[in-house]
């Protein structure tokens, strides 16, 4: 599956999310708007680090925001995750599934070589 995350595909994306979440009601994206909100938050964080021209080819795993989990919760809770890939002009949804919750809302899986150089140079100053 490779779906453009624009509004035109909202119903198809919502169907894919509902299929992955099945009957789950906690730690979910719920629909296209929930996923779109997470993508907007990701873009804000990426723009602080990397110029938009270097986003192409980025693979990012987004996790539904769960807030806090009680300390008495035994084990790791499940959450919906979505793998997105940056194309030339838009983000594409590649995978939606349920998995054990990670500590971060999103995680960059790979960087293009030029992006890697920019990040390395930025962090060498500190």
- Which regions are unreliable across 5 or more consecutive residues at pLDDT < 50? none
SSE sequence, one letter per element: EHHEEEEH
Approximately how much helix is present in the residues?
Answer: 25-40%
The general outline is globular
What can you see in these coordinates?
The protein has helices spanning about 10-20, 30-50, 115-125, and strands spanning about 5, 60-65, 80-85, 90-100, 105-110. It is globular and about 40 Å long. It has about 130 residues and is of the alpha+beta class. It has a 5-stranded antiparallel β-sheet. The model has no long low-confidence stretch (mean pLDDT about 75). The relative contact order is 0.22. A hairpin with a 4-residue loop joins β3 and β4 (about 90-100). The protein has one domain (about 5-65, about 75-125).
Keywords:
3 helices; five-stranded antiparallel β-sheet; globular; single chain; 33% helix; 126 residues
Please give a quick description of this structure.
With 126 residues, the chain is of the alpha+beta class. The chain is 33% helix and 25% strand.
How are the SSEs placed, and which strands pair?
Blueprint: E1 3-4, H1 10-21, H2 32-49, E2 59-63, E3 78-86, E4 91-100, E5 106-110, H3 113-124
Antiparallel strand pairs: 1-4, 2-3, 2-5, 3-4
């Amino acid at each position: 599956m490779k779906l453009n995350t624009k509004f035109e595909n909202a119903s198809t994306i919502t169907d894919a999310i509902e299929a992955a979440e099945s009957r789950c009601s906690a730690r979910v994206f719920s629909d296209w708007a929930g996923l779109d909100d997470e993508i907007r938050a990701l873009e804000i964080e990426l723009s602080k680090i990397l110029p938009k021209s270097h986003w192409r080819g980025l693979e990012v795993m987004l996790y539904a925001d769960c807030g806090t989990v009680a300390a008495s919760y035994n084990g790791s809770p499940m959450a919906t995750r979505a793998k997105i890939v940056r194309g030339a002009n838009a983000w594409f949804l590649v995978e939606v599934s349920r998995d054990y919750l990670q500590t971060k809302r999103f995680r960059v899986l790979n960087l293009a070589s030029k992006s890697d150089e920019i990040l390395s140079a930025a962090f060498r100053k500190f």
